[in-house]
Amino acid sequence: MSAKLCFLVSLALLFHSTIARNSPSISTNVVNAYSTFNATRNYTHVCDPSRFSDLGLNIKHFAFCDSSLSYDVRVKDLIDRMTLNEKSAQIGDTAYGVPRIGLPKYEWWSEALHGVSNVGQSGSVASYFDDVVPGATSFPTVILTTASFNQTLWKTVGQAVSTEARAMYNLGHAGLTFWSPNINVVRDPRWGRAQETPGEDPFVVGEYAVNYVRGLQDVEGTENTADLNSRPLKVGACCKHYAAYDVDNWLGVDRYHFDARVTEQDMQETFLRPFEMCVKEGDVTSIMCSYNKVNGIPTCADPKLLKDTVRGEWNLHGYIVSDCDSIEVMLHGQKWLNDEPEDAVAQALKAGLDLDCGNFYTNFANSSVRMGKVKEAEIDNALKNLYTVLMRLGFFDGSPKFENLGKPDVCSNEHIELATEAARQGIVLLKNDAETLPLSSEKIKTIAVIGPHANATSAMIGNYAGVPCKYTSPIDGLSRFGEVKYEMGCDGVLCKNDTLIYPAMRAASKTDATILFVGLDLSVEAESLDRVDLLLPGYQSQLISQVAQVSKGPVVVVVMSAGGVDISFAKNDPNIHSIIWAGYPGEEGGHAIADVVFGRYNPGGRLPLTWHENDYVYMLPMTSMRLRPVDSLGYPGRTYKFFNGSTVYPFGYGLSYTNFTYKPVSTKNKLNIRLNQFQHCKDLEYRDGFYKPSCPAVLIDDLKCDSHNMELAIEVANTGKRDGSDVVMVYWSGPSGIAEAPIKQLVAFKRVLVKAGRSEKLKLELNGCKSFGIVDYSGSKLLPSGGGKIEIGDGLLTIPLQIDFHRGAL
Ligand SMILES: *[C@@H]1O[C@H](CO)[C@@H](O)[C@H](O)[C@H]1NC(C)=O
Ligand SMILES: *[C@@H]1O[C@H](CO)[C@@H](O)[C@H](O)[C@H]1NC(C)=O
Ligand SMILES: *[C@@H]1O[C@H](CO)[C@@H](O)[C@H](O)[C@H]1NC(C)=O
Ligand SMILES: *[C@@H]1O[C@H](CO)[C@@H](O)[C@H](O)[C@H]1NC(C)=O
Ligand SMILES: *[C@@H]1O[C@H](CO)[C@@H](O)[C@H](O)[C@H]1NC(C)=O
Ligand SMILES: *[C@@H]1O[C@H](CO)[C@@H](O)[C@H](O)[C@H]1NC(C)=O
Ligand SMILES: *[C@@H]1O[C@H](CO)[C@@H](O)[C@H](O)[C@H]1NC(C)=O
Ligand SMILES: *[C@@H]1O[C@H](CO)[C@@H](O)[C@H](O)[C@H]1NC(C)=O
């Protein structure tokens, strides 16, 4: 989503820029069925008979309000009543409504990335805070919640957020459609929006998407409705930004002009996979296309990406929306095809874009039809996709199940505790020499709390935040355990002044323990702001080293950041005993961090990103989209799947206050797949000197995947003295020698709680097609024969795998 297009100099002169969105009064733009058309009466839904009679209409004449009819029939009736101009006025984020037939306005744009947000409030977004709803629970940023590697938590947070969203809708303070989550893969460690995302692994990103979307959308008990186009919804979610979007503004290359050059292989394997999972497994109601071009074509005008893939192949039950003002970007930023507005609108409609966040559709779709550039039927189709979602949300008929949600359901104690719990589960312990942590509150009476984030508040909620219920800063959290001596040490995150270091050293030399809060914030990594290096800004490193040198007690460094930071100096400094990564931990961040530091919670989070050494950024430009190394240009690979060099901390890294060991219980490690006469062997390129089987691979689409399941049963033992949670990470590496194959890839993970001295049995479901596939250079998904090996943890347990293809009887 764009803050707005003011950055786009070329757009500044436009006569038809965002008029409607600069409207000063936000509440008039907020449209739910309550306040529409009659300020003195509240309605809970559009098809309230008294609402129609107040409008002087007889509801019986409007079949779209007849709940005995199917959504299909009702939506068609609604659309068929509209004139062309009325139709085109409904396909922008602000759908203007048609008073003549009792159809109210609706604002499609709300955000709920990690709590209900008011982002875009100066534009036309539907969610806002005031005296009636002063705040909503601000959960940790997604990158930290992801670090829990706990699917149940991801879904539970989604459920809490949608409860607050529904409550706010009932109070006229939010819409029903939320353009969250952001599921772009963090391909490059410099990307400014890493905080919004679930990290660098496409499978983890997809799993996060599925669970968060189901948490937001699903109405308990109706998940398996036969006709998914009538499945009830709690709120509507949206997976964005589709696709291959992850350059914001790097050394002058911005997202509005960036043309991502992407191979089919990377597209299938990395960039599309989370979106495919979001649609097919999450049954999301919306996909948002991105600003950038992919191989020369703006994503919002690409019928192959939208109509063929999202709607066709993946069978979206919902609508496709543009990022805000994408059509304007296409027209005036990218000057794509030297279009007139009507051409751009026609191209986007034909490509399958249903809703324009902006006002190009609402201003020009009608004339585009009149000029013969696009069929009216394309608009009808978009309207059908849109209004079907609103019917499923109860916009027309009400949602009795949610109508009693109100103020007490926003910022409830239960939700604030869940925000704390999400932070605890995500926090990653990176270093803990000599079991320095947890600190004992018996022994530690005074604590030096130092650094630019020591008193963090808004920095903890990152971007796409709302107004939190309250904050528990690190100082607040630690004050529960001892007497805090606070020193900033720096004049801010950018830390351009070293004069505050000395007072910090003095404090540390006199207290029983030293905790340094350092890292980044939105002035370093943000939307429209990529990083240029991976270092701590300014004098922060110096602050840490100098304070550590003179500290009387143990030294703990807490890093708040989304992207990885090259803290090799601290990792290697014996004066620094422990390091914790806390992401941007949400409104209760200080509470969760203190719980971890003083042992009320045993950390079990794992890094969802590789923490690269700073040199990495000088080896390749952000604009190179290849995941694999580009030997001819000397570019290394990207993400743990393709980067074989040294790192500060690898993907999946994280320590605990206890130790875990793994033991296989029973493992079926062979798949013998019988091929019928219609299943053919496919060639696969092997590197020189490696054995290539006679039937190297089979197309996954040709296989009967249901019959290729494999269950992995292992025992996780906690051999230490404290209860703790372990994340069991299962990687697969394919047969040796396959050209350009990933080094390894995560195929399953599960977080498990094990009591001290006990063990837990764990079953992990793997599937031949889903887990052991590779994508070849042409984008084909193949199951290679041979098998390779399964690795649990970082090589803690290795299980060889055997996959064979046979012809005829086994
Ligand atoms: C409409 O609902 C709002 C929010 O519940 C409430 O504050 C207001 O008093 C209601 N107005 C009327 C006329 O009932
Ligand atoms: C609004 O609703 C009230 C209560 O039903 C009714 O008396 C009034 O006439 C309505 N106002 C308008 C403008 O329709
Ligand atoms: C098309 O719709 C816009 C916005 O509602 C309106 O200003 C314009 O007059 C319409 N064009 C025609 C030809 O009716
Ligand atoms: C911490 O920040 C809060 C809010 O910005 C402020 O009110 C408070 O005084 C600060 N605490 C200290 C110890 O400076
Ligand atoms: C650093 O801070 C000190 C104390 O506030 C101030 O006197 C000095 O001018 C600052 N230096 C710079 C370079 O801003
Ligand atoms: C790591 O990858 C680079 C780039 O492809 C390659 O040149 C190098 O040989 C690899 N190193 C190892 C140890 O595999
Ligand atoms: C974990 O195991 C290592 C190696 O055996 C040992 O040094 C360490 O003390 C153990 N840690 C805990 C927390 O039990
Ligand atoms: C996963 O999250 C859920 C929801 O917060 C929690 O109940 C459960 O204990 C967590 N699992 C582990 C192993 O920490």
What does this structure look like?
The protein is of the alpha/beta class and 810 residues long. The chain folds into 3 domains: 266 residues, Glycoside hydrolase, family 3, N-terminal domain (TIM Barrel, Alpha-Beta Barrel), CATH 3.20.20.300; 175 residues, 3-Layer(aba) Sandwich (Rossmann fold), CATH 3.40.50.1700; 148 residues, Immunoglobulins (Immunoglobulin-like, Sandwich). The chain is 25% helix and 17% strand. It contains 23 helices and 29 strands. The longest helix is centred in the first third of the chain and has 20 residues. The N terminus is likely disordered. The structure holds 2-acetamido-2-deoxy-beta-D-glucopyranose (8 copies). One 2-acetamido-2-deoxy-beta-D-glucopyranose binds next to loops. The site of one 2-acetamido-2-deoxy-beta-D-glucopyranose (NAG) has 4 residues, from loops.
User: Roughly what percent helix?
Assistant: 25-40%
Q: Largest sheet at a glance?
A: 6 strands, mixed
The gross shape turns out to be: globular
Number of domains: 3
Poorly predicted ranges: 3-39
Q: Please state the structural category.
A: alpha/beta
Q: Please state the second-level CATH architecture of the largest domain.
A: Alpha-Beta Barrel
Helix count, per DSSP? 23
The pLDDT mean sits at 93
Distance between the termini: 55 Å
**How many strand segments?**
29
Name given to the CATH homologous superfamily of the largest domain: Glycoside hydrolase, family 3, N-terminal domain
CATH fold call of the largest domain:
TIM Barrel
Percent of residues in beta strands:
15-25%
